[in-house]
């Protein structure tokens, strides 16, 4: 099974995340033995919510080009809106993204976004919140979602739904499943 781990940090201590690290993992063997296969990162130097620098081959085809840059930019900018980051250089808070293919036809039907806090990737105890987006008819477009307060602003509204859908849709374009 493959999954993406996303960790953001507020290294400058201004209360907003300034870096987003994407780690693409493959689950092999026992929990904790997962293999890190690919990495990408984005930096928002001035913490204005718009990524200023980014690097990584998020489509995993061995080439880094404008498609990677565009996807990474979209994903990281939207991730910043979650406000799920670590103060300083800590790693306890992260998002785990998994796509599942119910029909086993190569096209995922659900993208799960699981917010964790604490150590241990597989432990249910570290799960803090989850959201999910669905592509029920296999056309590659998200058509439904289930979410809570995704952007942590105290409200559950259209903005949360939009955020889950764009993160899930972008994740599907990473083709990490
Ligand atoms: Ca910026
Ligand atoms: Ca690429
Ligand atoms: Ca669909
Ligand atoms: Ca909200």
The assigned structural class equals: alpha+beta
Name the ligand types.
calcium ion
Distance between the termini: 7 Å
Average pLDDT number: 93
Strand percentage: 25-35%
- What is the percent of helical residues? 10-25%
Rg computed from alpha carbons, rounded to a whole number of angstroms = 15 Å
Number of helices: 2
Characterize the quaternary organization of these chains: single chain
Q: What is the number of independent domains?
A: 1
Outline type: globular
Order of helices and strands: EEEEHEEEEEH
Total number of beta strands:
9
For the biggest sheet, the summary is:
9 strands, mixed
How is this structure best described in words?
The protein is an alpha+beta fold and 177 residues long. It has one domain. The protein contains two helices and nine strands; from the N terminus they run ββββαβββββα. It has helices at residues 66-80, 158-174, and strands at 2-10, 19-26, 35-43, 53-55, 86-87, 93-100, 110-117, 127-134, 144-146. Strands 1, 2, 3, 4, 5, 6, 7, 8 and 9 form a nine-stranded mixed sheet that branches. Strand 2 (19-26) and strand 3 (35-43) form a beta hairpin. Helix 1 packs antiparallel against helix 2. One calcium ion (CA) binds next to loops.
Question: How would you sum up this structure in a few lines?
Answer:
With 177 residues, the protein is of the alpha+beta class.
Features:
nine-stranded mixed β-sheet, 2 helices, 177 residues, alpha+beta
Helices and strands, with pairings:
Elements: E1 2-10, E2 19-26, E3 35-43, E4 53-55, H1 66-80, E5 86-87, E6 93-100, E7 110-117, E8 127-134, E9 144-146, H2 158-174
Parallel strand pairs: 1-5
Antiparallel strand pairs: 1-2, 1-6, 2-3, 3-4, 6-7, 7-8, 8-9
The structure holds calcium ion (4 copies).
